[in-house]
Design goal:
The chain folds into four domains: 3-130, Response regulator (Rossmann fold); 155-312, Nucleotide cyclase, GGDEF domain (Alpha-Beta Plaits, 2-Layer Sandwich); 328-445, no CATH class; 449-556, Arc Repressor Mutant, subunit A (Orthogonal Bundle). The chain is of the alpha/beta class. The protein has helices spanning 12-21, 38-48, 64-73, 89-97, 110-154, 188-192, 197-218, 250-265, 283-299, 338-342, 344-356, 360-376, 382-402, 408-419, 424-444, 449-461, 469-476, 480-491, 495-513, 518-524, 530-541, 545-556; strands at residues 3-8, 29-35, 52-56, 79-84, 102-105, 177-185, 222-228, 231-238, 269-278, 305-307, 312-313, 319-320. The protein has a five-stranded parallel β-sheet with strand order 2-1-3-4-5, with helices on both faces. Helix 11 (344-356) packs parallel to helix 13 (382-402), helix 12 runs antiparallel to helix 15 (424-444) and helix 13 packs parallel to helix 15.
Length: 557
């Protein structure tokens, strides 16, 4: 039964009749309490929180009108039906003033009462369903805001004011510590080669759901974020207000994840774990370190789970190597040459970063950096050098595909060249071809996704300022009219609509997850005048910022 009811009357036989004559069970209503006067009813209402109260008006100690008044003063949201033998206007006016739902005149017509109760019960159910829907929507919005905050933090795009944010349980974000996992599908570039876009989405969705299930089964506070196709980041919260360490068994859990994903879906995954909990400001370098560890060990076909936490020292001051530290290079050698061999990672990451920013001039610098790097590994064995360059190709293909700057024809050409490569010279030529192709595509596609990626990143970094089309177009080195045209084509909304929506999403996050004033939030999302911010917010959200915050707080209780 989804509705709780209480009957209040000073006449015992009427209480019994009302509890027996009305088919409460058939109406989906449970009688949770009976009371003989208003004082007793108030006590019972506090205990049982009924949804519906059926009460007589004239009673000793506290009558029905007094009961209704105090219920409203105490913020009880129940519906009240009054039973009265009087038609006095003052009674009716008082009942209406305090929000009586209906009233029945004695002697009671039970059929009429049945119909009134059934009608009001339907209204209560509708209100409850609406409340559940609002709660679900609020939780989803809150979760989306939290995920966006963490995603931006991992990508190094966090707003410096994020340390003032609070999570849904009221804890400041800066107090949270995270254990970070990077889950990456082995040889994703090769596997996805044979899939169309729909198949890639289906398989990524399937892996995402398996990872979510594993998080729920462990019953831990963790957030799952997909960083790109075939790669996810899991952030496990470590709260200062808890004695329980969620880090216990994390390495074994990572091994379970690898095993279950492979045996459930047939995909081998490698996992990088940073087992030392870090704050939100430390996430970007830790994320990059975990990614690097995954890729280096995948090259060597080593363990599926690799820990990136710093080495710990024992009592003697010597390094303790019993804790899965990353103290070998990708081919099982000692650390003496690992830095030289692993230095391809920053070369590649810097090139990809410049590619995403459409920084064509500095992409040429990356080609030079690659030449310098290749000279630095000239002392390596042929097999080891080839393996590094092969992985360089695969990683670059994956990034270019993810950015949609590698056509199907170009990708097939790369695979063909890779399969028929006959040594270092062929691999070097292939890498040169890929990097030059990406630069060429970046220049050619100043009207496509690459340019929009750069525009969106710039907008995100500058949401708190008075941001205009001319500024963003100037940053991209194209005309304002051309920028407006291609922005609408690729994003599906105008520049103003997009910036407004992004500002409202950030404002929603701050309203729910911080204790900042409306004026402070207004300025932080780019509105100097609170009045104008409120007007825009109300138009977009359907309520004022204050109303939204109050509703969010009420729903969270």
């Amino acid at each position: 039964m989804d509705i709780k009811a209480m009957i209040v009357d000073d006449e015992v036989h009427i209480l019994k009749n009302l509890s027996m004559v009305i088919p409460w069970a058939e109406l989906g209503i449970e009688i949770v309490a009976l009371a003989k006067n208003g004082v007793e009813a108030l006590e019972q209402a506090e205990v049982h929180q009924p949804d519906l109260i059926l009460s007589d008006i004239r009673m000793p100690m506290l009558d029905g009108i007094g009961l209704l008044q105090q219920l409203r003063e105490q913020n009880h949201q129940c519906e009240v039906i009054l039973l009265t033998g009087f038609t006095d206007f003052e009674y009716t006016r008082s009942a209406i003033r305090y929000g009586v739902k209906d009233y029945i005149v004695k002697p009671i017509n039970y059929q009429e009462l049945h119909e009134v109760i059934e009608r009001i019960a339907g209204q209560i159910r509708s209100r409850k369903q609406e409340h559940v829907s609002e709660m679900r929507k609020w939780r989803e919005m809150n979760e989306m805001a939290y995920q966006k905050l963490l995603f931006d933090a991992l990508m190094g795009l966090s707003n410096p004011e994020s340390r003032y944010l609070f999570d849904e349980k009221g804890m400041a974000i800066e107090q949270l510590r995270f254990i970070l996992f990077v889950v990456d599908v082995d040889e994703y570039a090769q596997q996805a080669r044979h899939w169309d876009e729909r198949e890639r989405k289906v398989w990524n969705f399937a892996i995402h759901n398996v990872l979510l299930d594993l998080i729920e089964e462990r019953e831990i506070e963790a957030t799952l974020l997909q960083m790109r196709e075939g790669e996810w980041c899991i952030l496990v919260e470590q709260r200062e207000d808890r004695g329980l360490r969620q880090s216990d068994g994390m390495i074994a859990w990572a091994e379970d994840i690898s095993y279950i994903v492979e045996h459930t879906l047939g995909f081998a995954v490698s996992i990088g774990v940073h087992e030392q909990a870090v704050g939100i400001s430390e996430l970007p370098p830790v994320y990059q370190q975990a990614k690097k560890t995954v890729h280096l060990h995948l090259m060597s076909k080593g363990s599926k789970v690799n820990v990136t936490a710093p080495k710990r020292t024992g009592a003697s001051g010597e390094t303790d190597k019993s804790d899965h530290t990353d103290d070998t290079n990708p081919f099982g050698e000692t650390t003496e040459t690992s830095e030289t061999e692993a230095s391809w990672w920053p070369v590649l990451e810097e090139f990809v970063s410049r590619l995403k920013r459409n920084d064509v001039s500095n992409m040429q610098q990356s080609l030079h950096d690659l030449q310098v790097y290749l000279q630095s590994i000239s002392h390596l064995s042929l097999v080891r050098a080839e393996r590094i360059l092969q992985y360089f190709v695969l990683h670059l293909v994956r990034e270019m595909r993810d950015m949609k700057i590698l056509s199907a024809e170009q990708e097939e050409r790369v695979w063909s060249k890779l399969e028929h490569s006959r040594g270092l010279k062929d691999l070097l030529l292939l890498i040169q071809y890929l990097m030059e192709s990406s630069i060429e595509e970046s220049v050619k596609k100043k009207t496509s996704e690459v340019l929009m990626i750069a525009a969106k990143e710039y907008i995100q970094r500058n949401l708190g300022r008075d941001l205009g089309i001319d500024e963003v177009a100037g940053f991209l080195e194209i005309s304002s009219s051309y920028f407006s045209l291609i922005f609408k084509q690729h994003v599906g909304e105008t520049f103003v609509e997009y910036v407004t929506r992004e500002r409202m999403e950030r404002a929603l996050s701050l309203l729910v997850m911080s204790n900042k004033s409306i004026t402070e939030i207004s300025r932080e999302v780019g509105y100097r005048e609170r009045r104008y911010f409120t007007k825009v917010f109300q138009k977009c959200v359907g309520m004022t910022p204050s109303e939204y915050r109050e509703k969010a707080i009420a729903n969270a209780k």
